[in-house]
């Protein structure tokens, strides 16, 4: 019996919440994951998880074993990474997460240049507007466009962007240009979903934040789709400046309600704090800081 393997399986069950999720991640059957857990509990002589058809709950012994086992696994990973770094070669896989628009527009060219510099690294990028849980180990670096940060992680600011409001010249010619945010009630709006402010748009009014609930005609979690809809004259969109640069340059969109711009949002690279950072992680973060400074 491989106690180390069984400890890894147990920790991932705690972090992912189900046997089936761990089985999928490890490319094993759920029955095999159950077998590993049974072996571990039998070798320890204690029950680590109370299991029902609907939930998994740690016992007190399971909580203690997880906390110490997780630390041992992290210590071993750091030992392996620090030893590998002695070769002065940056290699391995780095897993990153980014918002759909920022990742799709900006991260691909950044990754292309990074891999030119460090060809022995592989980058696995997931695009999702919902921030991942860094503590479950599925992601090494999470890129966030936000003004709220988890105090339990390291956050390095790599860029800034403003949240602005845009429309096409054709739409404004047909519907008129809103002079104040109260005028938006008479306009077609294109709404970005899956944001911390929900159904509302945020504006700056005399130095204070004001929320406006718009009557949207199209909503999506994809900013590029909404910007394209705005460029086609379908309505008004509120989006980070970074997302609309190409549309502004082509003249397909123009900024409106400029006096109500929100303060800048920062783009952060976030990752867990640890005693030792592998070369692949430090090289990637340092590269991003330099890349977005240009």
Q: Could you list some keywords that capture this structure?
A:
D-Maltodextrin-Binding Protein, domain 2, sequence-specific DNA binding, Arc Repressor Mutant, subunit A, transcription regulation, DNA-binding transcription factor activity, DNA-binding, 294 residues
Brief digest:
It contains nine helices and 14 strands.
Structure report:
This protein is α/β, with parallel strands linked by helices. It has 3 domains: 3-85, Orthogonal Bundle (Arc Repressor Mutant, subunit A); 92-146 and 272-291, Periplasmic binding protein-like II (D-Maltodextrin-Binding Protein, domain 2), CATH 3.40.190; 163-263, D-Maltodextrin-Binding Protein, domain 2 (3-Layer(aba) Sandwich). The protein is 41% helix and 26% strand. The protein has helices at 3-16, 19-26, 30-44, 60-85, 100-117, 169-175, 223-231, 241-250, 279-291, and strands at 49-51, 56-58, 92-98, 121-127, 141-146, 153-161, 163-167, 189-192, 200-205, 208-213, 216-220, 236-240, 254-256, 265-272. The strands form 4 sheets. Strands 4-3-5-14-6 form a 5-stranded mixed beta sheet, covered by helices on one side. The protein has a 5-stranded mixed beta sheet with strand order 11-8-12-7-13. Strands 1-2 form a two-stranded antiparallel sheet. The chain is elongated, with a radius of gyration of 24 Å. The chain starts with a helix and ends with a helix. The mean pLDDT is 88. This is Transcriptional regulator, LysR family.
């Amino acid at each position: 019996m491989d106690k180390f393997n069984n400890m890894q399986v147990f920790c991932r069950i705690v972090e992912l919440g189900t046997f089936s999720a761990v089985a999928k991640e490890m490319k094993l059957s759920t029955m095999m994951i159950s077998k590993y857990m049974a072996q571990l509990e039998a070798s320890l002589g204690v029950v680590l998880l109370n299991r029902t058809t609907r939930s998994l709950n740690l016992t007190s012994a399971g909580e203690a074993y997880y906390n110490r086992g997780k630390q041992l696994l992290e210590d071993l990973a750091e030992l392996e990474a620090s030893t590998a770094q002695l070769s002065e070669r940056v290699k391995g896989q780095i897993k990153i997460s980014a918002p759909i628009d920022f990742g799709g527009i900006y991260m691909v060219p950044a990754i292309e240049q990074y891999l030119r510099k460090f060809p022995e690294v592989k980058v696995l990028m997931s695009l999702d507007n919902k921030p991942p849980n860094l503590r479950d180990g599925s992601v090494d670096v999470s890129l966030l466009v936000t003004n709220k940060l988890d105090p339990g992680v390291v956050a390095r600011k790599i860029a800034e962007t403003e949240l602005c409001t845009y429309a096409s010249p054709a739409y404004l010619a047909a519907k008129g240009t809103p002079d104040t945010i109260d005028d938006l009630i008479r306009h077609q709006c294109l709404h970005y979903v899956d944001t911390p402010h929900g159904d509302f748009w945020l504006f700056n009014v005399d130095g204070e934040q004001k929320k406006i609930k718009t009557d949207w005609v199209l909503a999506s979690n994809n900013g590029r789709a909404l910007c394209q809809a705005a460029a086609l004259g379908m309505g008004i969109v509120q989006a980070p400046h970074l997302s609309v640069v190409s549309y502004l340059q082509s003249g397909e969109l123009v900024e409106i309600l400029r006096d109500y711009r929100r303060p800048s949002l920062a783009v952060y690279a976030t990752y867990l704090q640890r005693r030792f950072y592998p070369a692949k992680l430090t090289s990637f973060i340092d590269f991003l800081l330099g890349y977005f400074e240009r």
